[in-house]
Amino acid sequence: MEKRVLFRHFLPFLTLVALSWAQFRCPEPKGFFADPEQCDLYYSCVDNQPEEKLCKDGLVFRDDNPKKELCDIPANVPCGDRTLLHTPIGSPGCEYQFGMYPGSDSCSTSYIKCIYGEPHQAHCDPGLVYNAKTHTCVWPDELIPFCNPEAIVGFKCPHKLPPNSPAAKFWPYPRFPVPGDCGRLITCVDGHPRLLTCGDGKLFDSVSLTCLDPDDVPHWFVHFAFLKTRS
Q1: According to its UniProt record, what is one Pfam family this protein matches (predicted)?
Q2: Which helix (H) or strand (E) holds 141?
Q3: Which of 138, 150, 154, 198 could covalently link to 202 via disulfide, CB atoms 3.0 to 4.6 Å apart?
């Protein structure tokens, strides 16, 4: 298998790296073991005989369990000193054949998931944004100043609340209903809004500011929320 490296300044050491691959010795008679230099290269050992293998383009080898043959996205794998990678096989819309990328250069609620070089658009759950470093969807206030939580959620948290108001009971994380959506609520964390979902088929009661079973929510409230979603 041809060995190629991603970083130009490692090219002078290609001969030494290739030599280390040729001299790889299985740490155990059977299992899957990482190459000491290249993060997407690993070996399958059977009876102390190594067979060289390469992760799919864009993925790297997880070396935390020698009994499992598993490649994952780089964000989930601490490569450490295994800094080398093979040359990417790019395609339109995908830097690698497999991977996840932001949907835009600005704060985005969507992302691109590349599978066999084909880009597919995916969306974060409502109220979340894509974090390009962790390749996960997170609260927008976790990416300030890159993201504006108020713009994403469409709500501005008040600095003060009347002492006897229902929302004040939950201070410092006051709650508020979402107009036209009886399945979600807004809570404020450190002055920034977060959109939450009741889940489990429950509805948000704007009186108690809690998620309740539908039978426990006043029918007029459910009917009003339904009309708001239809308007």
Answers
A1: CBM_14
A2: none
A3: 198
Q: Which two tokens stand for residue 211?
A: 């998620």
Q: Whole-angstrom Cα distance, residue 216 to residue 213?
A: 5
Reported as a single tens digit per residue, the pLDDT across 96-154 is: 999 999 888 999 999 999 999 999 999 999 999 999 999 999 999 999 999 999 999 99
Rounded-to-integer distance, Cα 196 and Cα 22, Å: 54
Helix (H, G, I), strand (E, B) or coil at 224: helix
Whether 138 and 175 share a structural domain: no
CA–CA distance from 16 to each of 12, 48, 49, 183 (Å)? 9, 23, 21, 60
Look up the pTM and report it: 0.73
56 close to 86: Cβ distance less than 8 angstroms: no
- Which residues span the domain enclosing 56? 8-76
Which tokens sit at 14?
A: 């290609």
CATH number at residue 30: 2.170.140
